[in-house]
Amino acid sequence: MTPALLRVEELVAGYGKPVVGPVSLTLEPGEVVGLWGANGSGKSTLLNAIAEQADILSGRIRRAPALTLAYQAQHPVRLATLPLTGAEFLRYADASSTGMPAALQRGLRRRIDRLSGGEYQLLCVWAALAGHAELVLLDEPTNNLDPERETLLVEMLAPGRAAPGVAVRATRARRAVLVVSHTRAFLERVCSRVIEITGC
Amino acid sequence: MLALLFDPLFRLPLITGVLIALSLPLIGALLMLREEWLAAFGLAHLAAASALLGLAIGIPAVLGGLLGAVAGGAFKFLTQARGNLVYGFMVLLGWSALGLIAANTTLGAALGHALIEGQLYFAGLLEVAAAALLAVITLIMLPRLMPALIRARLFPTHELANRLPRHRWHLRFDLLAALAMAIGTATIGLMGAFALVLVPAWIAFRVAPGWRWTLALCALCGCGGYLLAYLLALRLDQPFGPLLVAVLLGFAALAAAVPCARRPL
């Protein structure tokens, strides 16, 4: 039996005081799991707790040994001026462009500070998905996306997309994704199961 | 005019300046990336004040400056201060100390003023050695530090989320920046060193199509600006520091005239 990548047990998390929980969930290798809930229900806080950015007030989070993690925050860091091409961005993210949708590849030679909000959002998501992380946390990845780009995102999240090398292919087969969104329809398109989150 | 470049009298100052003009703009690119360009100004002020204090007790300016700048870099790291605010206070502290040391030692205000404008023409073997050391350390450390610093800037949660040790890169870079500003200030002066950190990086960030070009443009602007200012200062008998700043500002004005692509909505 393959061990779970992540086990969240009766977790209550927040920032000094509780925001979300108690929540329990298990993430198996290869799964794409959605976290859905109303605004303020604590979905992002749960991701933050898994990524060690929020306080664990009770319960616990158990990671698989030496688990590698990529965390795409709701608002990715975007400097007003940064002369880094899309390809350089991927290189510094330790991610590959192999298998990248053609529409995204157009941004590889352009400076990331000159990409549109949607283009940059997709590039960030791709960087998280096409790297070596076994667990990818995506917080509201549909931000800034028009319907056309949202379809691209759905394609990117499909299992088996992009397989640059043997090592990365092996990681990708094992990789699990935890996606937070307030859009239930989007989660149902990309996730194998959706968990509803309610606040404390 | 080019013969001045090969005059034995000016050889050591020339080599010292070239090494510094190559190193400081590369460090400036990373300071710009971290939005901490004021670091150069703060550290330069501390370096100038401690260089002057060192001279008062018989220590060469380049060594005295190093102590002040490294102390500033270490203080910033230990207090985990980020952003430009801490450097603003360093500017005030350094400026205040510089004026008070100049007024209360036998060195006088003239030497304090010289540190602000630079003493490049008095560069000797010690200054060449310090500049060469800076260039070598920069070339060795930057390829290792740069990916970590860029990653830390773009993906600030990565280290914590993956339970990796934090800040080791930041300390090394803070100390490198301090070393660079100390050596730069003690040779080409406070304003010249600050301009070499700020202006080439600003130009490159504005016009470069990618990061490799950014580094190349930084080195080119820094070195080209330095050589042009050096020649003009000798030829026209002008003070080097202000002329270097003027040349770099001229480059910046040219870069500002280049139309830049705007971010689409």
Q: Which helices and strands appear, and what pairs or packs with what?
A:
The complex is a heterodimer of chains A (about 200) and B (about 260).
Chain A: E1 6-15, E2 17-27, E3 32-36, H1 43-50, E4 55-63, E5 69-72, H2 86-92, H3 102-105, H4 117-129, E6 135-139, H5 147-157, H6 166-174, E7 176-181, H7 184-190, E8 193-196
Parallel strand pairs in A: 3-7, 3-8, 5-6, 6-7
Antiparallel strand pairs in A: 1-2, 1-4
Helix pairs in contact in A: 4-5
Chain B: H1 11-33, H2 38-56, H3 61-78, H4 85-104, H5 108-117, H6 125-154, H7 158-161, H8 168-188, H9 190-207, H10 211-236, H11 240-257
Helix pairs in contact in B: 1-6, 1-8, 1-9, 1-10, 2-3, 2-4, 2-5, 2-8, 2-9, 3-8, 4-5, 6-8, 8-9, 9-10, 9-11, 10-11
Average of the residue pLDDT scores of chain B: 83
Radius of gyration of chain B: 18 Å
Percent of residues in beta strands of chain B = under 5%
CATH architecture of chain A: 3-Layer(aba) Sandwich
Query: Which strands sit side by side, in order, in the main sheet of chain A?
Result: 5-6-7-3-8
The number of distinct β-strands of chain A equals: 8
Gap between N and C termini of chain A, in Å?
A: 34 Å
Query: What is the count of DSSP helices of chain B, taking H or I runs of 4+ residues?
Result: 11
What is the first-to-last residue Cα distance of chain B?
51 Å
Overall form of chain A: globular
**Rg of chain A computed from alpha carbons, rounded to a whole number of angstroms:** 16 Å
CATH superfamily of chain A: P-loop containing nucleotide triphosphate hydrolases
| Helix/strand order of chain B | HHHHHHHHHHH
- The helical percent of chain A reads 25-40%
Strand content of chain A: 25-35%
User: Could you describe the largest sheet of chain B, including whether it forms a barrel?
Assistant: none
GO molecular function, one term (chain A): ATP binding
Organism (chain A): Thiocapsa imhoffii
Protein name (chain A): ABC transporter
Domain ABC transporter (chain A): 6-199
